[in-house]
Amino acid sequence: MTDYLAVNRANWDERAPAHATSPDYAVDRFIEDPNFLSQVVQFDLPRLGDVNGLRAVHLQCHIGTDTLSLHRLGARITGLDFSGASLAQARSLAARTGADVDFVESTVYDAPKVLEPGSFDLVYTGVGALGWLPDIRRWAQVVGALLRPGGRLFIREGHPMLWAIDNARGKDLLTVDYPYFERPEPMVWDEPGTYVATDATFTHNVTHEWNHGLGEIVTALFDAGLEITMLVEHDSAPWDALPGSTVRDEHGEWRLADRPWRLPQTYTLQARKRV
After folding, report:
1. Each residue's pLDDT tens digit, 105-142
2. Confidence (pTM)
3. What number of other Cβ atoms are within 10 A of residue 102's Cβ?
């Protein structure tokens, strides 16, 4: 297999500055309004509960908008990402907003080597993270290693059913065309753009990605010493995952224009490490 880390890192490094200046990440709103929270964190506030005072780590934090949002809710948080360019933007955002947030450059799988194992009350992961990892069991073992007994994982992620769907044959026709279950070899994409509004052009356009079935994720967490305490499937996503087939709702989320109950687009999962 080609070095997926090098390929994916080049893609994220190149896109980080464009993401930081795109209105979709709302960096200006964070700077102007000390109470502003990211859309992803805001969506899950009723499920997230009180994080004030918790020692937390945000895995695959990218440019740090969700990380900063959790800090604003009172968490003592560290952001971790493998993209140095993304972390440069995250540190800049923290500095411009006066936020005391640490950022660490590392792959997810190496997180227990660069962070203190068994010391975190909360491990957080946001939308669009797991698909960059080839082995969901290794990810779950990392989560279990970082959490203290009784600590919890909180994640909102794209639903594996969504990642398996293609709507290129027509806006009303959803085709299951990509793997639902984890496969040894990645799906290799060569796409010139990015998922936010930007005028930037890119040269590192190849990515290697994997899907992980919901059962695979739940089983991996259980085997890593965690118990599922919440699993909610949503018919919406915070980005337009199926252009031409979706409409935006009053909360800024995107759902199918035609019979949205056909497809779960995201899910929120919480799990606690067994004591």
Report:
1. 999 999 999 999 999 999 999 999 999 999 999 999 99
2. 0.96
3. 14
Tens digit of pLDDT for each residue in 34-86? Answer: 999 999 999 999 999 999 999 999 999 999 999 999 999 999 999 999 999 99
Question: For residue 84, which of 132, 12, 134, 19 has the smallest C-alpha distance?
Answer: 12
CA 58 to CA 61: how far, in whole Å? Answer: 6
DSSP conformation letters of 184-219: SSPEEEE-SS-SS------S--EEEE----HHHHHH
- State the residue for tokens 């980005």: 239
Distance separating alpha carbons of residues 19 and 156, to the nearest angstrom: 20
Going by C-beta distance under 8 Å and a sequence separation of 6 or more, which residues neighbour residue 30?
36, 65, 68, 93, 97
Q: Rounded distance, CA 58 to CA 7, Å?
A: 22
How far is CA 31 from its chain centroid?
22
Give the residue from 200, 250, 202, 252 showing the smallest Cα distance to 29. 252
Exposure on the CB side of residue 137, measured as CA atoms within 13 A: 6
User: Would you state the structure tokens that stand for residue 80, as one six-digit string?
Assistant: 């971790």
Identity of the residue numbered 27: V
Give all domains of the chain, ordered by start, each with its CATH number: 4-273 (3.40.50.150)
Between strands 187-190 and 206-209, the pairing is antiparallel
